[in-house]
Structure prediction request, 437 residues.
Amino acid sequence: MRWKTADYTGWGRVHRATGQLARPERESTLEALIAEEPSPAIGMCRSYGDTCLNDGGHAIDMTRMDRVLSFDAKTGVIEVEGGCQIGELARLFAPQGWLPAVMPGTGFATVAGCIANDVHGKNHHGIGSFGQHVISLTLLNGDKKQVISPKRSAGLLKATVGGLGQTGVIASAKLQMIPCKGDVMMVTERRIEGWDEFLAALDGSKATYTVGWIDATAKGDDLGRGILEEGETGAGLVPKPKKSRSVPFNAPGFALSKPVVRLFNKLYYSRVPKSGRTTVKPISDFFFPLDAIHDWNRLYGKRGFHQFQCVVPIAQADALREMLERIANSGLASPLAVLKRMGEGRGGYMSFPMEGYTLAVDFPNRTGAKDLIQSLIDMTEAAGGRIYLAKDSVATGPQVKPMYPEFADYQAEVQKADPDGHYITDIIRRLDLRSKS
Prediction:
């Protein structure tokens, strides 16, 4: 039997689904499934909200379709099946001098998932988003099989990149990798004492990879303090990666109470000497620091968590500061908060990035969190920014649609590709992204 009933959830575990899942291992099986029952695809379910869910319907689990189909060691062009994981590509090809051009915060993300959400990484300011490095992809829709590229079906490609899976199933993709010096990272860490200093440090950084951890509980003169990490690939003796651990059960509510989070953040900030430090790390430890803790989402307890991530234009940095003040005063933030500088690059009509500053903060799913996030979304819209749909779990359609100026182009292409709504998922229903109204 191809279809089996299964329960599944996004990484935040706030939204859940029950439905019929199929797990093909070959493209021929995938083609037969889609011709018989056109259904949205899912991967490792590492998007935080309901992007990967189709409650009450069918979905195709692509995780067994994870093969490398071809690789050109001279040019760095690689073709992979949609279920191939980014971390596995880094592990296999960094020793050969090549890395995926863009890597998100988890190596468990699949290539198709990276395309459908047009993910960004620690080098977005210099190299843009994942979708900009897609040479072509194979898209399955009903009994149709199309190879699309920027030169062939450009509009359809822009609706597919960042398009949340609404144009069909990405069976495989050809990507341009980028050269790297080896499979280690030279990482410089330094303390940043406050908000203005943090923005200046991000603006002035010349590093290929930059990311900032920010203390979302700090107030007053300490508002915006954190740690800036700057990284470059290198060669040499590879340190041992962190030993994998796991969270075996749901943590109790007090584990992320205000006093615990405040203490953790203080200690985490202090772990870097005032003078800063430079260390050598395995590539996985730098790009995917939480992957070494399996099931870390259980730290938020059985009710799960939300993540809010926004980007605002450079000129609206004060609006982002106001958001951080509101977060700090709420007492709801977790230790996971990130600040980055973004460039202009984006690959699709519904791609998240814009030039500016992006803030991402996790919140345990407790009283007040949804109201807080709703207010932050409204502040983002007022500042001319947008939220990241791969992380969202609470926004509404009227909030989201004005944030994406090419939304009408996206809708038109999706309507042509899927007029019968076979690929509609929970997030599309929640945000009403397929409605003509």
Observations:
- The two ends are 40 Å apart (CA to CA).
- The first strand starts at residue 4 and ends at 9.
- DSSP finds 13 helices and 21 strands in the chain.
